[in-house]
Amino acid sequence: MSYIQFLGAAGVVTGSKHLIHVDSDGSRGLQVLVDCGMFQGQKEWRERNWQDLPVPPQSIDAVILTHAHIDHCGWIPRLVKQGFHGPIYATPATIDLCGILLPDSGHLQEEDAAFHNKFKTSKHEPALPLYTMEEAQQCLTLFRPVNFSELKQLSSQLSFRFVRAAHILGSAMAEIALTSNGKTSKLLFSGDIGRVRDNQIAPGKVVHSGPTEGEDCDLLVMESTYGNRQHPHTDPRPELAALIRTTVQRGGSVVVPSFAVERSQKFLFLLKELMETGQVPRVPVHGDSPMAIRAVEIFLKHSEEFTPETKALIEKYGSPLEWPNFHFDVTQDNSKKINDSKYPTIIVSSSGMVTGGRILHHLILRLPDPRNLVLFIGFQAPGTRGFTIKNGASEVKMFGQEVPIRAQVESLEQFSDHADTPELLEWLHTFRRPPKQTYLVHGEPPAASQLCEAMTRELRWNVQVAAYRQKVPLE
Ligand SMILES: [Zn+2]
């Protein structure tokens, strides 16, 4: 039997992994994994990173990767460590991003394991990393670039092409054509779907043009992160400027947890503009990440993907690496020096959901002081420290200690790279025909079920929320 099996991002927003198993005359023809993401957030989910897949990794022929967020690509080094040795297909920008994000992820895994071993805080002795930085580096040789719209034939039974998802740099949806028993069916895996329109409603958006319209498929596997939400339609810049001014006036610093590549750089351009126009005081700005400089270079390299607004900003201000008063802290020593600074500073650091990385050190120092501001500009998955801080907790655990939260905490939802419910419905209305079946993945249960209801009511499509490890037979 040919089938799809949901091996992650079912009932949760992380761990995206969908297996396509194709039979050929009774024998196994082909197995492909669409995305290979890490589970993040609650322990119950994270423990799934240690479970084996239901099929041997060496029996998987290829991975098709939609984009470079860790919840979509972060399990690849583990898959390779367990014996997968096939090609990993992704767009050139996604490959560039994975080139810095996956080794960094391995580095964080190693740091975590070392911490647990030092303080004996794990039930495993010794605590091990899911994979190391070196293992993550080695798996990069398996990546193969596929440009948008290029048709890639994997076997006589399966071909695919990437179309734009407009979510982050390089992000794609995978259109897959599958031939079995003389019949071809079309599958569409949405990956994460970006904002549908450009500047008016999403001033923080980097990539252009919205997701590809006029899709046509038999089976749709679609994300539902914001399946029960609507983003604010106001320009975030005046609000952002006011928040920074007030913080600086009271002698505090601003800490912004942010995805290391793209989101951080776009935020820096907005800051630069606010400073140049006198809306924000010229305090020192730190892009604090071990990959800060490469992140800026990758960002600037892929200008073909930008909105006209982003292009104009880059043309006007050039490379952030050359701006006075903007510092890119690559080494641990640079990073520590930020803490010696007595003056208000703005620190942009990763990880964006505070699951690890240098942001932890900045928050441990600054969360207890009410003069400071912690500003969220991205999605916070339940169970992550970012979610805890954002939702008004009085303390949060970092490196085994409870850190009191007295700093001001704010979030600007306008920066979201995910379409909200009205935008998702608007995009679905452009489909040329209703898919025979739609499965919703990558959403918390309330978001997925409300989107399911809205799609059933408004479009009259056949929609279900996918369940973990559920197998869907393919005709
Ligand atoms: Zn994503």
What is the topology, as strand order, of the major beta sheet?
Answer: 6-5-4-3-2-1-22
Report the C-alpha radius of gyration, rounded: 22 Å
The coarse overall form would be: globular
Distance between the first and last residues' Cα: 9 Å
Helical content band = 25-40%
What portion of the residues fall into strands of 2 or more residues?
15-25%
Mean pLDDT comes to 91
Contiguous low-pLDDT stretches (5 residues minimum) are none
Give the names of the bound compounds. Answer: zinc ion
Q: Which sheet architecture does the biggest sheet show? A: 7 strands, mixed
DSSP strand tally: 22
Number of helices: 14
Which helices and strands appear, and what pairs or packs with what?
Blueprint: E1 3-6, E2 17-24, E3 27-36, H1 43-46, E4 62-64, H2 70-73, H3 76-81, E5 88-90, H4 92-119, H5 133-139, E6 143-145, E7 152-153, E8 158-164, E9 172-180, E10 183-189, E11 219-223, H6 236-249, E12 254-257, H7 263-276, E13 285-288, H8 292-301, H9 308-317, E14 326-329, H10 332-338, E15 346-349, H11 359-366, E16 373-376, H12 385-390, E17 395-398, E18 401-404, E19 408-411, H13 421-428, E20 437-441, H14 445-459, E21 463-465, E22 471-473
Parallel strand pairs: 3-4, 4-5, 5-6, 10-11, 11-20, 12-15, 12-16, 13-14, 13-15, 16-19, 20-21
Antiparallel strand pairs: 1-2, 1-22, 2-3, 7-8, 8-9, 9-10, 17-18
Helix pairs in contact: 4-5, 7-9
The protein binds zinc ion.
Zinc ion is lined by residues 67, 69, 72, 167, 192.
What does this 3D model show about the protein?
With 475 residues, the chain is α/β, with parallel strands linked by helices. The protein contains 14 helices and 22 strands. The strands form four sheets. The protein has a seven-stranded mixed β-sheet. A hairpin with a 2-residue loop joins β17 and β18. α4 (92-119) runs antiparallel to α5 and α7 (263-276) crosses α9 (308-317). The mean pLDDT is 91. The site of zinc ion has 5 residues, from loops.
